[in-house]
Amino acid sequence: MLKRHFNLSEKGTNLRTEVLAGTTTFATMAYIIFVQPVVLGAAGMDAGAVFTSTCLITAFATVLMALLANYPVAVAPAMGHNFFFAYMVVLTMKVPWQTALGAVFISGIVFVATASFGLRETIIAAVPESLKSAIAVGIGLLITLIGMEWAGLVRLDPNTFVALGSFNNKPVIVALLGLLATVILIARKVKGAILYGILFAALVGIPLGVVTRPEAVVSLPPSIAPTVLQLDVVAALKQNLIGVIFIFFFLDLFDTVGSLIGIAKQAGFMKEGKLPRAGRALLADAIGTVGSALMGNTTMVSYVESASGVAVGGRTGVAALVTAGLFLVALFFSPVVQVISGGYPLHEVITMQGQQVARTFTLYPVTSPALIVVGSLMMKSVRDIEWDDFTEALPAFLMLVMMPLTFSITDGIAFGFISYALLKLVTGRAKEVHWLIYVFALLFIVRYAISGLH
């Protein structure tokens, strides 16, 4: 039944590969169920309820992605958006978290409503091929940077911003051994190499004290009651949060479009520059955001970590169903999940302006090798950029370097769109550009202008 419904044979895959892919995606993105409660907890929300809602809404939205679009893509609360929600809207703007959830809900409704206009599919079709390729490469570089940071291979430096990390730390050793195992297995064309690398790193980390044995195996999930249906839509409208709602919608749209294009390019889903069933994929994300606000969580996006599942052969929604199922399992096995995807706190002393400053940061040595390898695999799209045409090459270059440098897919897309529109205009080639690119380039400029005034 699964094989027929999801067209496994037609997609050149099988059930075993899809299970491996879904499990690998889960292993590389499971950190969100531990990060999200910390971030939203800072905004005054119940951390236990956030943990439960994160697992539930991720499973729900990912199942929608599988059934509606048949893509091996997981949907979960967006990193970056959660910080904007907690630290900008709630803590800085002094908006109650219930009202902020109302703004998230409205942005999701707008996202769903745009489906009737075909706006989202039109955006994907409007993005030039060079920029589509640059999005994939930029996401790959961003994933690599995250993986390098989580592994401790790069670190903060007050003079150069980043520098090589210390190889004397145990978590760095675990990450390096996990990376070595993964690349050897990939080079030998072993199916599921990335997942096996994660398991190998976990086993190596136990005797080194980096990975601890769980105190318990099974535990009941915390109650969702403190956050479910606590949103205040009326207050969001009364407090004139139109700007906040627009930003939620804007970030959701472009993070999802960017992630889908990047993953689709890697998996070979793009057909003549278009993504089949793009509307359905984006609808799953939009409905997920509406449901997330109702459960007491932030905007949902297609996760770029899904590229790790694609890298091991995932090509259908079966992989997404596996990922969704594992998030439901995580509700009851949180101690075990935390061992695999949990962080390892590391302390260091750095010199800033002549003074020594102690800082603590968290490494993820078990899952970081997977991100580094996935980033390298996504680099192949760089060959599809028209490097001999400066009006294509420079915007693509800005897009792919700004994503890791700004730590934002949306900002990378913004620099690419703005420079692409500008160069085509000044070279008399304006007609080569879809009108939507000009519209969004202008909107990005307005966004930066407004943010610069605050």
What is shown here, in short?
With 454 residues, this protein is mainly α. The protein has helices at 2-5, 15-29, 32-41, 47-69, 81-92, 97-113, 119-126, 129-151, 170-187, 193-208, 233-238, 242-267, 278-295, 306-311, 317-330, 334-341, 368-377, 390-406, 409-426, 435-453; strands spanning 75-77, 154-157, 161-164, 300-302, 344-352, 355-363.
Key structural traits:
454 residues; mainly alpha; two-stranded antiparallel sheet; 20 helices; 6 strands; globular
What's the topology here?
Elements (H helix, E strand, L loop, with lengths): L1 H4 L9 H15 L2 H10 L5 H23 L5 E3 L3 H12 L4 H17 L5 H8 L2 H23 L2 E4 L3 E4 L5 H18 L5 H16 L24 H6 L3 H26 L10 H18 L4 E3 L3 H6 L5 H14 L3 H8 L2 E9 L2 E9 L4 H10 L12 H17 L2 H18 L8 H19 L1
Antiparallel strand pairs: 1-4, 2-3, 5-6
Overview of the structural elements:
- The protein has a two-stranded antiparallel ribbon with strand order 1-4. Strands 2-3 form a two-stranded antiparallel sheet. A two-stranded antiparallel ribbon has the order 5-6.
- It has 2 domains: 267 residues, no CATH class; 68 residues, no CATH class.
- The chain is mainly alpha-helical and 454 residues long.
- A hairpin with a 3-residue loop joins strand 2 and strand 3.
- Helix 4 runs antiparallel to helix 15 and helix 18 runs antiparallel to helix 19.
- The model has no long low-confidence stretch (mean pLDDT 82).
- The chain contains 20 helices and 6 strands.
